Structures are given as structure tokens and as C-alpha cells.
Amino acid sequence: MARIEGADPSKQGLLQGLFTRVVYSLTKRKVGRTVLPVRIAAHHAKLLWGYGLLGSRLVEEPLKNLGELRVATLVGCPF
Q1: pTM here?
Q2: What is the C-alpha separation between 68 and 5, in angstroms, rounded?
Q3: What band does 1 get if pLDDT is binned at 50, 70 and 90?
Q4: Could you count the other beta carbons within 10 Å of the beta carbon of residue 21?
Q5: Please, which residues have CB within 8 angstroms of residue 23's CB and are 6 or more apart in sequence?
Q6: How far apart are the C-alpha atoms of 21 and 1, rounded to whole Å?
Q7: DSSP 12
Q8: Residue 23 class from Cβ within 10 Å (0-12 exposed, 13-18 middle, 19+ buried)?
Q9: What are the C-alpha distances in Å from 13 to residues 5, 10, 39, 68, 72?
């Protein structure tokens, strides 16, 4: 269980709340429910935007792999 709760779009500003609602609906359509990492990332709009780009086809695969490797190094992931 996460230490913080997921973002509530109704408690955010107009644009960030709208963006969060759109991302939540896209996640529900793709996965079937709104997963916790997306709800946690929704607290910060730029982080949520980057999270979305990492899963999209707009960024090339080698760049995605490099980003994942960098994050794994920063957090100390042994895999």
C-alpha cells in the first residue's frame, strides 16, 4: 500500500484536473482500472506527462530503455 493516496481530480486546478481525468480514462480503457502508480504520478502534472510518454510510441525504444535504466540506477534497483 502506498504512503500517499492517489490524486483526486476534483481537488486539483482546472487544467491539471482535466488532464488527470483524461489520463485516468485512458488508463481505464487500456488496463481496465486506474492503477496506483498512475494515481500517485497524477499529483504532479509534468511527472504524469513523462509517465505517459514513456508508454507511448512517440519516444523511440532505445531512449525509453535508457530512461528506465537511469531510473533503476537512481532508485537502486538490482535488476
Answers
A1: 0.66
A2: 24
A3: low
A4: 14
A5: 38, 42, 48, 52
A6: 22
A7: S
A8: buried
A9: 17, 8, 16, 30, 32
Burial of residue 48 (CB within 10 Å: 0-12, 13-18, 19+) is: buried
The torsion angle over the Cα atoms of residues 41, 47, 48 and 52, rounded to 10 degrees, is: -120
Cα within 13 Å of Cα(55), Cβ side: 12
Apex 7 CA angle, 44 and 76, nearest 5 = 55
pLDDT in tens, 45-79: 888 888 777 777 788 889 888 988 998 899 888 77
